[in-house]
Amino acid sequence: MLKNEQAALKNQWEDRVVDVSVAENAYRQSIEAYGARQNDLEQARLRLAEAEENEINSRKEMEEADNNWQAAKAILFATEQEVAAANFDNRIADLQELEGTATRLEALHSPAHQELLLSYLLVPLGKEA
To answer: Which of 25, 99, 115, 128 is the most exposed place for a label (fewest CB within 10 A)?
Structure first.
């Protein structure tokens, strides 16, 4: 009976050693899984920080693009104003030129000028007006 009890105790001891070994393996695996989760969490944090930085950079680029657009619109408006002013000046110059032409034409059709022309035309013929 003592041998049976010793054998039973030995079996219990071996079972407990196996149980402890299984528990130690499970503990190691849970530590490894925890480490893997920590690595995954750190990678996720790094990706989140990168995404936040990309968002900030995108906002800056959008602000810069908007500022460039506003500047381009201002330049376009100023250019349109300059073109309009130049066109206006050109039209005034054209009108002044037309006015001068009209004045010269009126002078050509004046009775005094017509008399002068007639006298020039008649002088080569030997006649005087």
So the answer is: 128
